[in-house]
Every structure is written in C-alpha cells, then in structure tokens.
Amino acid sequence: MNLTCAVNNTDKSVGVPAQTLAAVNTLKIMGSGNSGLDPVFEGAGDKTANTNRLQWFLYQVSGQRAAYVYNSTIAGSFMSARWAMAQADGDSYGGQGRWHAADVNTLLLTDSSGAASIEPNVFASQVLEWCKLYWASGDGGAGADVVLWSAQLRRGLASGDTVTLTDWTNFCSRHLLRYETALTLANAYRPAGRRAVRFMPLPVIMERIRLDTLAGLAPSATFFDDLYNQDVNTDTFHLGNKPLAKWIMGGAATIILTGCSPAQLPATAEDLVALDATGLLYLRRVMHDTLKSYRYTGLDTSGWIRA
Length: 307
Description:
globular; alpha/beta; 10 helices; five-stranded parallel sheet; 10% strand; 37% helix
C-alpha cells in the first residue's frame, strides 16, 4: 500500500444525502473510542455541553451546535473490549457506545493504535458488528450513520524511541489497511437507503505533513515534530495541545461529520488563540488535497475551494 497515493474517489455513493451545515443541530453523536478521540471531545461536560472542542468547531462553521454529544472513551481500549461491556455498564463512559445506540444518529468509532496488530478480516468483522447495531437500532430504530476515525497518530512506537521513517510509514500503512478492509466489508452489508460508512484518514494527513517537512515544503524544518507532545501516560507521542494540533483534531472531526471544506474551518482554536497564519494556510491546503484524493472518506468534495 502506498500511504501517500492519490486515488480518484469512485466510492462516494451514498444512500441518503450528506449531512449539511444547515442541519448540524440535528446531529446526535456518540464517540466510542480511546485516547485518540479525547482531543476531539476535550472540554468540560458532555451531551449538550457547549464547551467541548467538537461543539465549538461545529458552531463556528454552522452557527449551530449538535443536539448532544456523548463522549464514550476508555484510554487504550479496543473496540472489541467496549463491545463486550455488559449492559450493566451502559451508563459508564465506555459502555455508552454499545448500549445507547438508540439515543444517537451518528457513531464516531475508533480503535486503539494497537489495532495495527489485528488481522484485517478480524478487525473488519468487529467494525461490522458496530455498524449492524447502529444501522438497526440507532436513532430510536430509524438507523444511524457510522464514521470511522483512525486513532493512529503516534510518532513513537515505544518509550524513548525515535521512530524511524520506515517504521512510521509501515505502522500507518498496516493501520490503514485494517480500516480500509473494514470499510469495504461494512459497505457491502449496508442496508438500502443508509449512507455509506465514511472514514477520516488522519495518518494520511500526518504522513503528508511529515514528508513535506522533510522536503522543506512545510512552514518550518520542525513543523511535523512540533505538532506532537509526549504523552506521559502511554510513553508514546500524540498530537499535542498546541493550537495548530488542536485545530487539526477539531477540524478533521468537523469535516467528516458535516462535509464542510477545510477552507470553512475557523482561523482560531477553541481557546480563541490566534493561529500562525502561515501554518494555518498550509494545513488547510494539506487537508484539502489529502481528503479530495483519498478514496474512502465518503465526502462530497466537488464544491470545495482550495484555500
């Protein structure tokens, strides 16, 4: 697999119209995942809270907030473990994902970066379980859309490692293969009239930034590394808390949930810190180019205008 290959999107068929910015206030979102989703839902409160990052971004692009957002995450958890939680755990953060499907119309689902070690067909069957549940039971039985989010954003593979470029690319490629296999299987089972499962390929975006940085095409010679902080809880590297890194996370989730273009994203992070203008323009263009060329997003990018 060529991680950076630009493929014309021929798999954008949808069973129902795409979400529009005019209907953001109808979104009822379940985020089932691990620490890879924490930066998306970061902020006080849940459900109808206006202070979490996703709600802030949604409001900036549409003037509306989602009806509510469930943050159902357990650090380091695999989706198979969250699926196996008993109904008695349904009101815990991790248990909400499986047992509150009827309350939401959109599932944002991810797995641990350790999923790169899971055999692709096994991973795909796990994703299909979640899809079938949300298609059948989501939104009070009307069915819910499913959005996959790759949690593989780590720069280090072990404590103290300086990951080699080959390791990074191979790790991301293995992770993407599992998600792409899962998308193909899930969409083969998609009920008539149900929108196709879509996917936010953050590893592809980050690989583009890494290669641009090496080639001198990014805003600085350390631009890729500067987006990361070391996570002391896992001894690996996650996208950090710097304004541009927060913008990537909140913006990517907003794009995949609403179909807005990178050019429509706000010029600040949710703490209203002004972003570096050069870095912001560069990231908008990277996200534009990557998401228009990557075939599995499920986004209609035909009306996007490059920043």
